[in-house]
């Protein structure tokens, strides 16, 4: 085995291995995607990974982890309009797609916060549109299953404000001064002016019904990561408004069909002592060895400082930064425990066994990638391959 780098910590040893690391020793290295993918979505069902949408358009692919020789295979195309930032959730061994940012129909001139729902049957390799609409537009939302038939969805942008921005941009496309005003008017508002969703939505696949578990006791977010472990749900960072992230990590326990939010709020530490933590959007997140890991994501360093000075267009003139830090919740403390091979965000996280597969994403300047990175904790070691 070829070792590139080894970093020792008090409780952890991080080993970054080369792509030829033995798959039988720790975690299996999966083949790269046949296409580059960012802002897509994916899910695992019966040991088969399904991914698609985003920069792939309507395309979908699967990889069967039960097979000895792993390969990505094309499956039926998604029948709706192409979209970014949809979410996929497994319910009743089918795959449900909720919302996204895309055109309402092929005649539409601008993108919208979509409310539609689609279902994919793996046994039939068939998609169908479900006769329902979400109560709110779904862009920047996050969701997980909380039972075999029920999903919970948190956060997301306000549909009316989001849609109106792109309508105004389209009207001003031939007038640079009006376009600049539209952009400034949209971004130059405080957090409260965006009305990000705070309603805790539920969806029941058995009866095709939407419900609510009340509202979250904090600001709504977009682009957060959401994970669950038994009855514990964790919402990680995300945007408080366009261009401004939070470093807060909110946790709740699902009891008696209600979410009981922890009053003690954790925060990701700065990536290094000389840096401020401006929070992340589009980060990878999941559990390995019952340890929550957060990796990558992007932000605008300096935006929190500007916003605190009431510069509400907080990311104006700031460069967007993609990150490669890997954080682990160790002994109830967040620590930087490793680095991705490259800065990366806005990809897909798949949990399988003791491993996380980080699929696709975008790197610096928003370039889409086709990589599949495996993170595995084993015997107090983080293996990256």
TrEMBL record:
InterPro entries: Kelch-typ_b-propeller, NANM, NanM_proteobact
Record's keyword terms, sorted: Isomerase, Kelch repeat, Repeat, Signal
Enzyme class: isomerase
Signal peptide range in chain numbering: 1-22
Enzyme Commission number: 5.1.3.24
Domain of life: Bacteria
GO MF entry, a single one: isomerase activity
NCBIfam families, per the entry: muta_rot_YjhT, PRK14131.1
Protein name: N-acetylneuraminate epimerase
Organism phylogeny: Bacteria, Pseudomonadati, Pseudomonadota, Gammaproteobacteria, Enterobacterales
């Amino acid at each position: 085995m070829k070792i590139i780098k080894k970093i020792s910590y008090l409780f952890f040893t991080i080993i970054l291995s080369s792509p030829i690391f033995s798959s039988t020793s720790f975690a299996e290295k999966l083949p790269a995607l046949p296409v580059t993918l960012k802002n897509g979505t994916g899910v695992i069902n019966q040991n088969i990974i399904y991914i698609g949408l985003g920069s792939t358009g309507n395309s979908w692919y699967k990889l069967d982890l039960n097979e000895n020789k792993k390969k990505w295979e094309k499956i039926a195309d998604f029948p709706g309009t192409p979209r970014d930032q949809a979410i996929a959730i497994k319910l009743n061994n089918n795959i449900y797609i909720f919302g996204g940012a895309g055109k309402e129909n092929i005649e539409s001139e601008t993108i919208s916060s979509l409310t539609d729902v689609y279902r994919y049957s793996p046994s039939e390799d068939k998609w169908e549109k479900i006769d329902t609409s979400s109560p709110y537009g779904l862009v920047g939302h996050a969701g997980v299953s909380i039972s075999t038939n029920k999903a919970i969805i948190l956060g997301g942008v306000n549909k009316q404000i989001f849609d109106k921005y792109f309508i105004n941009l389209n009207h001003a496309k031939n007038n640079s001064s009006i376009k600049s005003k539209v952009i400034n008017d949209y971004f130059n508002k405080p957090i409260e002016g965006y009305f990000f969703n705070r309603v805790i939505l539920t969806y029941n696949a058995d009866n095709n019904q939407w419900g609510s578990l009340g509202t979250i006791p904090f600001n709504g977010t977009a682009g957060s990561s959401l994970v669950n472990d038994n009855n514990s749900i964790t919402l990680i960072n995300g945007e408080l408004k366009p261009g401004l992230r939070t470093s807060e990590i909110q946790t709740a326990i699902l009891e008696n069909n209600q979410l009981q939010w922890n009053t003690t709020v954790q925060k990701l530490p700065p990536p290094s002592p000389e840096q401020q933590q401006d929070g992340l959007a589009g980060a990878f997140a999941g559990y390995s060895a019952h340890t929550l890991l957060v990796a990558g994501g992007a932000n605008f360093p300096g935006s929190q400082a500007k916003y605190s000075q009431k510069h509400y267009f907080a990311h104006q003139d700031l460069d967007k930064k993609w990150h490669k830090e890997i954080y682990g919740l160790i002994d109830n403390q967040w620590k930087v425990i490793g680095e991705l091979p490259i800065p990366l965000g806005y990809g897909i996280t798949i949990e399988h066994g003791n491993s996380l597969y980080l699929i696709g994403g975008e790197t610096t300047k928003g370039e889409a990638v086709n990589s599949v990175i495996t993170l595995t904790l084993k015997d107090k070691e983080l293996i990256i391959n």
